[in-house]
Amino acid sequence: MYLLAIVILYITLSIKFIDWKRWKDHYATIQFFIIGCLLYNVIFYQHTLWAYKSVTWDWLGHTLISIIFILIIIPIAIMFYLQYYPEGKKQVFYIFTWILYFTFLEFLFSRFGMFVYDNGWNVGWSFLFNIIMFTMLRLHDKRPVLALILSVPIIFILLIFFHPPLAELK
């Protein structure tokens, strides 16, 4: 039920606060994120670092919950993030607020058993990942080619640290 409540909340907030006439402005960045999430789910399929878990229905596993997050919740969050992105000195505070928000939600979900860590991943790694993610989302929105180029070594580093047998190379 929590998943349905989250979906309804995000959709309701998006109807009220997102300028949907500007959705094309951020469409490529949303695709960038979706592709990254889907790649994680494929590459780490047999070796997850984190996974969603239903506490109410056994049939509602990581794959279905992940698809709902990837296709509904996260695009809405990215639209909020990018449409309200400030200029000037407020940028650092703004990014840090989103990093804390996402890290706190993940921490909260993990405490209630709805988000599980595995294979060396933890909330600290998620915090660092969120720093990279929100920085890259903004960079992709403004300079997509640079963001794509920088993403390659970041992905490679994550693979070396967390994906066997690549993890054995470190």
Q: Count up the domains.
A: 1
Beta-strand residue percentage: under 5%
* Class computed from helices, strands and strand pairing: mainly alpha
Secondary structure: helix percent: over 70%
> What is the average of the pLDDT values?
90
Shape: globular
N-to-C SSE string, H for helix and E for strand = HHEHHEHH
The N- to C-terminal Cα distance equals 41 Å
Rg over C-alpha atoms, rounded to the nearest angstrom = 16 Å
Uncertain segments are none
Strand order of the largest sheet: 1-2
Please give the largest β-sheet: 2 strands, antiparallel
Give the beta-strand count. Answer: 2
InterPro entries: CBO0543-like (IPR048147)
Keywords: Membrane, Transmembrane, Transmembrane helix
Protein name: CBO0543 family protein
Provide the fold topology.
Blueprint: H1 2-17, H2 23-43, E1 50-52, H3 62-83, H4 90-111, E2 115-117, H5 123-142, H6 144-162
Antiparallel strand pairs: 1-2
Helix pairs in contact: 1-3, 2-3, 2-5, 4-5, 5-6
Question: Describe it for me?
Answer:
Helices cover 71% and strands 4% of the residues. With 170 residues, it is mainly alpha-helical. A two-stranded antiparallel sheet has the order 1-2. It has one domain. Helix 1 runs parallel beside helix 3 and helix 5 runs antiparallel to helix 6.
